Hints:
There is one protein chain. It contains four helices and six strands. It has a six-stranded mixed beta sheet with strand order 3-4-5-2-1-6. The longest helix is centred in the middle third of the chain and has 17 residues, at 46-62. By secondary structure, the chain is of the alpha+beta class. Helix 1 (4-17) crosses helix 2 (46-62).
Amino acid sequence: MLDTKALLQTAVHAGDEKRAEDIVALDMTQVSLLADYFVIMSAGSTRQVQAIVDEIETQVKAAGGIDPRIEGNKESKWILMDFGDVVVNVFTPEERQFYNLEKLWQQAPLVDVSNWDNA
């Protein structure tokens, strides 16, 4: 089973492999009981949103992680993947701007994931 940091890294890496943009990870441990980390990323279309979600699910499962609870469907502009300690949000740019989770959770520190794309 994956630990929380490994799960976070796997999700970020999988999103990057499917060309997710503006990947942000928030450390939620001091600001919310919902999860330890929120990951937010953008996709250019609903089709790419689904491709990213599928890749994250595949890579997490291959690494020994759990199946997520998923909110949204193939036509969604925002799909939420709940892995328990890590929640991944994949948005089209318009939906991401509308919901603006980064502002909603602005008190949560950013996790530097910039060097994880080649992990």
